[in-house]
Amino acid sequence: MGGPSHLGEVEVFLRNMFKDPYILPIKNSLMRKFVGSMIVKKRLEKAKENYRAIGGKSPMVGYTFSLCQKLQEKNSKRFYSYAMRYTPPFTDMALKEMQQKGIQKIYLFSMYPQYSSTTTLSSFSEVHRCLKELDYKPVIEIIERYYDNAIYHKNMLNSILKTLNGLDSKDFILIFSAHSLPQSIVVSGDPYQQECEKTFEYMKALLKENNLIFKDVLLSYQSKIGKMKWIGPSTQSIIEEHAKENLLLYPLGFTIDNSETAFEIDIEYRQLAKALGNKNFLVSPCFNDSDDFADFILNLIGEK
Question: Residue 304 — very low, low, confident or very high, per pLDDT cuts 50/70/90?
Fold first, then answer.
């Protein structure tokens, strides 16, 4: 969905997010714009403060650019680019470049392993809107989810092993922390929570298969905003309950590090755990621009 490349883009990011009908499902566009502007006004300074704590920008921007470069190096027969929903490069910019290059077939690869209307559908709907606006009619192949892919699971396992770096897993509680969603969106039929839970079950089986035994393995949800009911349990409540244990957090559903991982998990939750007596708090990085992730993407494209 994107992330600001400097503090000046934080407001752009928030305004575009909260005018998205898939994020703020208010049918009347004027009312949605009004409510969205109120949310932005309330959250802007705090959001800027959070981004300052991680270098004044989202790490997503640099990692995504680097990932595309790596894909290009690994397979120069194709052109690799990326589009973001709420910050540059916007979808229309990326598609216009492809149109100018005369590209007649596009593979749309979702950066979200689990499907949700708030992310996957929102992004692909914007692609189709922009294609129509540009009168651009390439052949489209879509990779919209891969939560059940064995290579995806193996890459997650490898990331967990690297984070442990030789430490005994039996001394740790492993927490898979996924982005939460309002309960109302899930009740309306969004498959996201179900796909997160299935991913969690796949990973528990893979851990057991590889004899990687943890003190406990838990699934939680983070990043709730507002007063409405969101799916849980919350990552914060899980950390509060187990703060005195050695903890390893894995950002389930995130493929590129962003403010939710770099700030919320690695700073906020780390500080919370430490304040409650935690002595060992590990965080697995996302796949980012790793060779394993680049190879995984190429493998999925090759299957289409």
Answer: low
Task: Tell whether 131 is covered by a domain.
Answer: no
Cα separation, 13 vs 9, whole angstroms: 6
Q: At what angle do helices 291-302 and 150-164 cross, to 10 degrees?
A: 180
Task: Say how many domains are in the chain.
Answer: 1
Residue whose token pair is 């979200």: 112
Rg (CA), the chain: 19
Annotated binding site: 179, 260
User: How far, in Å, CA of 215 to CA of 51, rounded?
Assistant: 34
**Total Cβ atoms within 10 A of residue 105:** 11
CA–CA gap between residue 121 and residue 37 (Å, rounded) = 23
Angle between helices 91-100 and 122-134 (to 10 degrees): 40
Please state, in angstroms and rounded to a whole number, the distance separating the CA atoms of residues 109 and 252: 18
Residue 69, both tokens = 């470069």
Task: For residue 219, tell me if it sits in a domain.
Answer: yes
CB 197 within 8 A of CB 186: no
Number of helices (H), then strands (E), belonging to the chain: the values are 12, 6
**C-alpha 32 chain-centroid distance:** 24
Q: Residue 188's CB: how many other CB atoms inside 10 A?
A: 10
Q: Could you tell me if residue 53 is inside a domain?
A: no
| pLDDT tens per residue, range 194-235 | 999 999 999 999 999 999 999 999 999 999 988 889 999 999
Burial class (CB in 10 A: 0-12, 13-18, 19+), 160: buried
Rounded Cα gap, residues 126 and 23, in angstroms: 13
Q: What residues make up the domain containing 256?
A: 150-283
Which residues belong to the annotated binding site for Fe(2+)? 179, 260
CATH number at residue 196: 3.40.50.1400
